[in-house]
Amino acid sequence: MGYPDTFTGYMVNDHKTWTQFHKKEGGYASHIRCHEYFVFPIPDNIPSELAAPMLCAGLTSYSPLVRAGVGPGKHVAVVGLGGLGMFGVMWANALGAEVSVISHSPNKKEDALKLGAKNFLISSEKDWAKPYAHTFDFILNTADMTHKFDLQEYMSTLAVNAPFHNVGMPDEPLPKIMAQDFMGSGGAISGSHIGCRPEALAMLKLASQSKLFPMVETIPISEKGCAEAVTRVNDNKVRYRFTLTNYDAAFGANRS
């Protein structure tokens, strides 16, 4: 499932300036009419139910990785294995980096390794960060509970000048952190949201050529189906993304 305004925001126009577009219904719409800039050709070997979450969580995770130059020789840590973290692990591994997953629970270790992670760190264990001091060239934080983190521990695992990059969006402010916590490695805290058209096209090409398929559950769209999806997402009972399907049956194939 994606945000209602997933396919909105800004684009670069012919004059290299930003133009804002009006909001659409995005992930909850049966049909949508929009500017061609926001329409992407889906490779034939990617089923629609797998492509849909790529255009939301997939791009949100892909964009910061490629902007940071993630590739062979880099060590990436992905914090949290959920709808965003799944893609983060999958993309970072496909780009050639060594990938570690940081999770508060061991329950998702098997899935993390299937997606391409080489290491699985359990952040609820005492001194979990010490063996990984100054290790990670990039930390992709996909968790929505960052306000409960001991950020000093996470910052201690950053390599020199590496970022702790946020794509998860907690409802609470970030925890207290001192300027001194950045000085051990010259680390930084950053964040981003979604990505641009060239990145989306490159992401789809990578997924197609490397045959990368996310772990997705499908639910036929209906009042009952939407209620089930929202409830299970709230209860963290989805592996790891929902796609609503059967739009033609619900709304009609020729609806305009």
Total of DSSP H or I helical runs spanning 4+ residues: 7
What fraction strand? 15-25%
N to C succession of SSEs: EEHEHEHEEHEEHEHEH
Strand order of the largest sheet: 5-4-3-6-7-8
Instruction: Name the shape in a single word.
Output: globular
Q: How many β strands by DSSP?
A: 10
Mean pLDDT across all residues, rounded? Answer: 88
Task: Report the major sheet.
Answer: 6 strands, parallel
Helix content: 25-40%
Structural class determined from secondary elements: alpha/beta
Uncertain residue segments: 1-22
Radius of gyration: 19 Å
Distance between termini? 23 Å
Can you give a write-up of this model?
The protein is 29% helix and 17% strand. It is of the alpha/beta class and 256 residues long. Strand 1 (10-12) and strand 2 form a beta hairpin. The strands form 3 sheets. It has a 6-stranded parallel beta sheet with strand order 5-4-3-6-7-8, covered by helices on one side. Strands 1-2 form a two-stranded antiparallel ribbon. Strands 9-10 form a two-stranded parallel sheet. The relative contact order is 0.16. The longest helix is centred in the first third of the chain and has 20 residues, at 48-67. The model is unreliable at 1-22 (pLDDT under 50).
